[in-house]
Fold these 4 entries.
Entry 1:
Amino acid sequence: MERPLTQHIPDNGAALHLREYEAVGGYSALRKALRDMEPAQVSTLVKEANLKGRGGAGFATGMKWSFVPMNVPGPKYLIANADEMEPGTFKDRWLLEGNPHQLLEGMILASYAIQATDAFVFLRWAYKDAAREMRRAIADAYTAGYLGKNILGSAFSLEMQLHTGVGRYMCGEETALLNSLEGKRATPRAKPPFPQVSGLFGKPTIVNNVETLSWISHIVNNGEAWFKSLSYTADGGTKIYGVSGRVNKPGAWELPMGITMRELLEEHAGGMRNGYRFRGALPGGASTDFLTDAHLDVKMDFAGVAAAGSRLGTGTMVVLDDRTCPVGFVHNLEHFFAQESCGFCTPCREGLPWTEKILWSLENGTGEPSDLELLERHARLLGPGNTFCALAPGAMEPLQSALKYFREDFEQHIKEKKCPYAHHQH
């Protein structure tokens, strides 16, 4: 089983520095592209590989790049979205801390493909070790001639900077990220125009996830057929999956795209801890719908998880066990989302705190039977198409699916006027 993204990350957690990265073939894809390929050929190769974004939306990367107007003078920008704040998600951190040059080479190649003049790594504020490694990697890349003027003697030049965020979940939304990078309040922008045409400072901009960009050098070196062959399904490549919760071996693993939830849970995460039973999981981070034990054989790719009624998202599973209250579990998530709403649109600003308060009243034994209808109404009114961005619709996914799969728990809270799990949650 090939693990292209993580195979060279040292077991001791140390970062792969420049000379070590070069020793395993690092920057050979950049040399190849600058020597033998036109920018459009790099875009076409990524498009033919059908590399889908690993940040959550799953949009085709090459298609996204193709929307950048190539005949417009002036600067263009490439941004690595490393603002990894989705609860339960820690896959990009592994890549940032373990192999920073893999990301940089991917960013330089992507910049070459769209003819970007400047690139930014937009990094989560809390990733202090990743920030240290990225600063060192960028400095070493400049010294070695992989960044700056006339890279490796070619006509292509690129400047790159590390930008650390201030710890707002909203900055993961690409247009809010652009506003933040411009020094403005991190609120989402109206679309169209899309960032590919009018992004950072009004110039064409591509924003890609860390895991997505880390793939580019491998695809340039090995081709689209190799990339597709790594997967069990039509979605090519491998995927970094994660599992958190009361399992024996929580963690993250690079595995073929399309493994099943059961394989991930039982073979890689070691199954549930003694005394705990699996009740469900958010398959792709906090803003995805619950799946249950009836879905354990669902393939963890974009189409498979969608067909089961959820989303692959970030591919990092958050497990709910039988000794954890589903109402309290969802309340905790809605508390987070209510705090992280940017307040820009009314349904999100007002609806998320209202939802959180209803769930809190259920947990405290003051809930009413009519609260379930109120929660269902919120799940509809804060759903897709009713808000300015995807934050509130994402927040409604765990709520609406919890009401569907664990409704008896909600009803029990109201009937018994208390949380029935309170005595054994610890």
Note: DSSP finds 17 helices and nine strands in the chain.
Entry 2:
Amino acid sequence: MTTATVPSADIRLVNFRYVGSEIGRVWRNARFIMFSVTLPVLLFAAFSAGDQDERLGGLTVAPYIMISMATFGAMNGVFSIGGRIGMERATGWNRQLRLTALTGRQYLAGKVLTGFTVALPGMIVVFLFGHFARDVDLPAGRWALAGISILFALLPIAALGCWIGYLVRPENLQAVAGGLYSLLALAGGLWVPADTFPSWLEAIVRMLPMYWAAFAGRAVISGDWLGWRGVATVVVWTAVLGACAVRAYRADQLRT
């Protein structure tokens, strides 16, 4: 994509309209929104139906599972970036966009912004269910901080989604993304608490970004924060996977 002869104001307008159209297109996909919203809530309701006094990772069951499922729903929205990129590659829409004033950086940024926008409904609905149906009570600021912390820790997953969208052939993307999606949830301790893993496996998942996404939300609920180790893990993985995504994007440009 080139911007050599296009005024910068026009480029910003194109970028603004592109991001707006992307968000609108995703929000009009009722099946995706329903899946990303209803599945985490259903899993939350099922997993938290037992003894409410039982404790997991220093929290009672309801807030612990609430953060797990809010992270699960948000991850679904963020990781779906790869699917949208793959679909555009399959239909040739990405080639059409390269004829506009939209730069490659703006294109990828638009995809990431759309992914995080789609991540919000599932997280918010899970939080609402936790408050009204499972009596999870937090100050207003802590709800917001928990959500922001989770989204921050999902930055590497957004970069991974972009990379996968270009790395995998469109016809194979659904199968690959589905497998990765399950592995990410497992590695993040979203389905099974990571502290129940064997020590060697727990040590491995602590080096992966997904573990820190749910950890970030639980830390806020406990009155703590992500911590420098978590921040470093998120930043390093974002840089590595982001570089991979940019490299794959440029390679796709050369091919098409």
Note: The mean pLDDT is 85.
Entry 3:
Amino acid sequence: MTNSNYKLTKKDFNQINRRSLLTFQAGWNYERMQGTGYLYLILPQLRKIYGDDTPELKEMMKVHTQFFNTSNFFNTIITGIDLAVEEEQGIDGKETVNGLKVGLMGSFAAIGDSIFAALIPAIFGALAANMATNGSAVGVLIWIVAQVLVMIFRWKQLEIAHRQGVSLITDMQDQLAALTDAATLLGVFMVGALVATMINVNIAAAPSIGGVPLDLQNSLDMIMPKLIPAAIVGGVYWLLGKKNMTSTKAIFIVLIVSVALSALGIIGN
């Protein structure tokens, strides 16, 4: 089978990045998830590599509509490596491309979600929210700058992955594993910091024993400061593990219980 001589240009990379940022999830479905979105991402480039209405193009279109699901923040790394292989090997690289996509989508989903869907929103969201509660507008700017930097990262990674090709994975294997562990640890640390700083619930009820008022909040603080916020987070985490429970339902439950306990004078802030 004849390989293509077409080489991707800057215009191709820009087109793929625009589609990735704006429409990658548009074709999401429960059967193949991001499969159709992935094909839409690179279809113009596949037509240039294999030609219009050729058997090779039809075969690769079938390959690229198979099940695919990874992090939205790392998907173009896989795309860049995939296109580097197809440029070099054409239809002969079909099995390699299929193996790359299947092998990388899971690991990149874990890394991308740990860093970009959990760690960065937790850090910069906490900074922005804390500044906002103190009346500062700088927090909004911090959040916007963080999101712009994420967009720039997503835009640049495609060309880097295409230039490095398959060697990117072998060269960065150890670094990616270490990065995932560090991101997970820092994410847990940030969640703990958020619980301690952003959830302010105190026991307002002051029962008396033998005519002596009992300061429940002070007693709990002596056991462990911020024990109530930690218990609330633990309770919501347990609740989310229940069947048919969603985050929206959990939010409403917390709101209703909080209003009821506050109205009864049991909790305050």
Note: The first helix runs from residue 10 to 23.
Entry 4:
Amino acid sequence: MSTLLISIVLAIVGGVLFTLIGLISGSDETATMVPFTLLVILLGAPPVAVFSFFMAAVISKHLSHAAPTALMGIPGDTMMVPMLDYAETLRKLGVPHIALRKMISGGIIGALIAFPVALLFAQFLGQFADFFETYTGVIFAVAAVIIAYFSKGKWVSVLLIIPFAFLIQGLNLVSFEVLDKNLSISFFLGIAIGPMFSDILIALSSTARKSVTRAEPQDYNLAPEIKSWSGYFPNPFRILTGLQKVAGSIAAFITSFTFTFSPTGMTALMGELIGSKIKGTYKKATTTLSVMNGVTESTYIAETLIPLIAFGLPLSPMALGPAAALFNAPPVFSVDHNLHHLMSMGDFFVYGLIGLIVGAFIAYPFIMNFSRKATVFIMKYISQEAIIGMFIAIVCVIAYYEGQITGLLVTFTIATVGGLLNRILGVGSGAQFMIYYGSGWMMAVLIGL
């Protein structure tokens, strides 16, 4: 079988597989993408086919994971946490299926813009590899300050950067003493479930419970289905308004360059910046969601392509998480012998495009055509409590897989502290993610840890 045919087949496999995985709420990106990518590598697939598989998986998962977020109010993965409030607003208006269509159409535009921009920027940055490798810690720390200031808490978020970084590195030190390895997924999960977990804690508190108590059940009214396209394949450019297309394109273009920043932080930052300029509940929520989901695609693509093509080193949050297997997959790949060394710029363009096109053609029409039916089914037959219980169970399994009991303790310690900081003081999840990435450099400079 030719390399091109293997690449197309693996792209189809990646698109179908991660379209289904993305529909499962709480399916962590790192915990799902790393094992499957490793499997493809270890089975002996050509490097270009591995890349096609990964790109198809990225776009299909990031399109379908919008479904549980928009329809149920449960984050599809950690990237969707900043969108929960806006998705909740549109669910109360009875148009969660409209929110979903806006989100995934914004995602398609974000991917189409980020891919060529990231390729060109990676080629340009190749000459500065030594600089970025030397100052990664400083870049993470500065980004943490910027994102913290733009979160709801503003100055209190900035003031809490060092204490929160100290907590993270303290827990990491304890984990290393127990397990003889550093944890990462457990910290991710703790920050991701923090707001949800803090609501549970508040509900259990006799003094704070009244703030989350409801006198009567909430009513949801679904708007009638209005299909604005013919056939099975809708045009994403016709789903979005002119303002949404322009705002989403600008946000995707800008975030294609910010490859060292937290994807979740950039999603929150760009969405809030653009949303703050828009009046009207429906218009603001739909535009912000389309922009945010476009940014999730652009940051994921850029944070994979730029460090991989320019340096061959995992110098971005994405490269340290879901894309880690592309940089280091012993015994096939290592930091001295990976896709950076085995593929040309032409290979990255051709086989990356194959992955994106195949993944988009599988996931996008499937979600667009069945979004309202999924809404009705989920709201009639699946309780919110069951979904939250399933989500917490998935988190426990993944945290235990990484660090056994220590992993669970780390996850729920971070969830407790981070969640209460988020709910009470307005320290956003994006700021917390960036503090996590910069915490190692901060503590090394301040106390020599």
Note: The radius of gyration is 21 Å.
